[in-house]
C-alpha cells in the first residue's frame, strides 16, 4: 500500500513541478526534458528568453540519472534503504529551489539565478525518474505520461474487444494507470492555478509533497527490503 501511495504522490508532484517550471521559468520542462528541444526552437525563432536553460536541461538530466544510479549502488552495498535517501535528497533540492525562487527579483527572466533554479529542479526530477525506474517500477510512471495514456487506451480496447478473460487481466493495471494520469493532470492544474494566484509562492508546494511521500513510504507499510525478499521467495 505504501508503494502505491508513494507513487501516487510522486505522480501529482511530476505534473505539478513540470507545469510550475514551464510557467515560471520561461517554458522550461524540468522532467519532460526532450520537450525542451521543441521550446528551444521556438525560443530561438521568436527571440524569447530561457534558451541556455533548455539547452542544458538534457545533459544535466542525463548526468544526474547516471550519477544517481551509481549512488544507488553505493547505498545498496552498505545496506542503506535507497528510497528514503532519494526522497530526502529531492526534499532538500525542492527546499533550495523554493529559497532561490523567493529570493529572485520578479523580473529575472534569463538571469543566472533563474538558470540555477531551473537546473536544481531538473536534478530533482531526474532523481524522481531514476527512483521510479529502479525502485517503483511496478507502479505507473510518475512523470511522462505518453506511454501511460497509450497503455490506458490499449487496456480499454482489451476490455471492449478482448473478451471476459482479457478484461479481467487488465482491470487492476488500468485502475493504477488512470489514477496516475488523473493525479498528474491534477498536479498540472494546481500548479498553474497557484502560480497565477501567488506567483513564486507556488514553489513551496513540492517540498511539502515530497515530505509527505517520505513519511508515507517510511511509516505506511512494507519496506523495499521486505518486498524484495518476497519477490525472491
UniProtKB/TrEMBL annotation:
InterPro entries: DUF1275. The keyword Transmembrane helix applies. Keywords: Membrane, Transmembrane, Transmembrane helix. The chain crosses the membrane at residues 20-44, 51-71, 83-103, 115-131, 177-195, 202-220. This is Putative membrane protein. PANTHER family: SLR0142 PROTEIN. It comes from Martelella mediterranea DSM 17316. Pfam families: DUF1275.
